[in-house]
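ok so for the tutorial part 2 we go from a plain amino acid sequence to predicted structure tokens. step 1 is just haveing the sequence, like this:
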Amino acid sequence: MQGDRPNKHDGRGIEEIPVVTIDDMNLKNETSHDTPTEDSAAVRIRSSRYLRMNVSLGVLAIIAFVAALYLARDFIVPLLIGILASYTLTPLVNWLKACYVPRPLGAALVLGVILGGLFWIAYSLHDDAVAMIKNLPETTRRMRQNLSDTRGGPTALQNMREAAKQLEGAAADAGVKQGALIVVAPLPKEPSSWLSDYLLALSTPMITVIGQSVVVLILTYFLLAAGAHFRRKLIGLVGPSIAKQKEAVRILDEINVQIQLYLLTMLVSNVLIGVGTWLAFGAMGMEQAGIWGVISGVLSFVPYLGPASVAGASGIAAFLQFGSPLHALAVTGVSLLVTGIVGLIFMPWLQSKFAHVNMAVIFIALLFFGWLWGIWGVLLGAPLVAIIKVICDRVDSLRPIGALLGR
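step 2 — the prediction. this is what the tokens look like for a chain of 407 residues:
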């Protein structure tokens, strides 16, 4: 053998056993301990990088999605309204189909009856609406006068205006006396109609709303006439497995039934709130009671904020009309009473049929969609949250989100 490590074969060709020294054992132990430590540190660094990258991509994706919702609001809002309207009216079209009415004809009949009813309501309330718009300046003036009387004298702004007028008059008198300044008063212009100016300012938004309403009407008709066509296409995307297709059919049927019942119940309850407010305010002698009924029914789609706004506004209108705080309180109480009675009738049934939605989530959704889409977002916020929760509760992979939205 040579040195510390003998040759594998000696001169006679006989294989020798290799000799392992203590230094070799220490070197192997150090290598075996150092390599896993370095590998685990590298893995942790890569994992943290991947985590930061995924979080950054998720945040960017959310920002891009919200920006797309905002930029495409002129397309998305009519689309959502059309889809919700088709879900709401599908039970009526199905009932007509059960009565041997073809589905396209049934959809046309349902939409025709609804449009006829809306036109009749608009024609009946036309005079009240015009009178309410014409009375807005006088109502504003009376409100300011009442606030000024309540404060016990003119406000600081009114004092400043009066002082400015007196200074202008003094300067004009001084200029005329010295002959250095001649003030020529402009010819009086014929006062323009406040209503005409207001309607002219609203002409462009009204044209936009009319155009979007036509789009919503056409989309709703095609969705109602198509029926379960899109659902069959969606089931076909699941795959050839019969078991998966049956499960998809069951989930879609449950989701459709829940959404249809929810929207139809909300529509019926809001119509009852509007009619009840109309009758109650008319019995109390309120002016434009029909307009208040329509406003109450529409704003009831906004939970809590809508009825509270109607109650406060109607109380102010009653105070300006009757001049009595008792009448104002009575009108406010009646408005809240009508909403409460309808809520006591329908809300227990809704809560027994549908999952509870956290009220904080609904309020956040109202703020978010209101900021995103304006008044349409406020009206669509609560139904969208309820529909999302119904879908999440019936899809296994989305149940954690449904639990987060629930109470």
